[in-house]
Amino acid sequence: MVLVGKNLRLRPLEQGDLERSRAWVNDQETARGLLRVLPVSPLSQQAWYEQVSRDPARMVWAVEEQQAHVGNCGLYHIDLIHRRAEAWFLIGDSARRGRGLGQEMAGLILAYAFEGLGLNKVYLHVGAENLNARRTYEAVGFINEGTFFQEYFIAGQFRDVLRMALLADAWRARTQER
Ligand SMILES: CC(C)(COP(=O)(O)OP(=O)(O)OC[C@H]1O[C@@H](n2cnc3c(N)ncnc32)[C@H](O)[C@@H]1OP(=O)(O)O)[C@@H](O)C(=O)NCCC(=O)NCCS
Around Cβ 113, how many Cβ atoms within 10 Å? Predict the structure, then answer.
């Protein structure tokens, strides 16, 4: 499914995107934002891509701005019984962060999740210290629904993680306001 917004085009991730994506997640600061600690080898990147490509409960998009691949995002744990999924977002090119692209891509994924898939809830996990990401998610309507204390050990310290969520009704009320 291709999702098109004002500045962004979200299309299915392709084989040719993998090395660029791997470089992003192996960048130390980006990895920290994503709550990742282990490096990703070409083999494990390939295996991940093959697994998600075959898994109906996971969808991954490449994010394009003016035809340039600038990030990735996805829906994981898509549960059509309880009608919820977990979202994740990455603007890999750090020079493009803080310009509203995160909010636009989240908006496209939310519209697809609630309208396209008929989900009732989209949730995500974000490091408590990741204030830019938290602001992005709050700006599109996510609220904190709980804190996992000392959930990850990253760069020598245990880190709290927030679970943020947005329900379909709240999202509809927000989109109708506009
Ligand atoms: C989190 C992320 C997806 C947000 O996307 P983005 O395009 O940077 O976000 P936006 O520009 O839409 O919004 C970011 C907010 O932080 C602010 N901000 C300021 N400087 C920023 C910077 N250098 N980087 C990111 N955000 C910045 C923005 O102004 C905005 O807040 P505002 O609406 O109150 O002004 C992106 O920064 C990213 O991929 N970061 C690295 C990986 C990561 O941490 N992912 C989140 C995992 S949960």
Answer: 24
Q: What tens digit of pLDDT does each residue of 51-62 get? A: 999 999 999 999
Closest atom of ligand 1 to 29 CA is 41
Q: How confident is the model at residue 37 (pLDDT cuts 50, 70, 90)?
A: very high
- Residues in contact with 134: Cβ distance below 8 Å, sequence separation at least 6, in sequence order: 126, 128, 162, 164
Find out whether the beta carbon of 72 lies less than 6 Å from any atom of ligand 1: no
Ligand 1: does its nearest atom lie under 6 Å from the Cβ of 10? no
- pTM summary value: 0.95
Give the structural domain span for 162. Answer: 3-177
Burial of 110 (0-12, 13-18, 19+ CB in 10 A): buried
Report the domain count for the chain.
Answer: 1
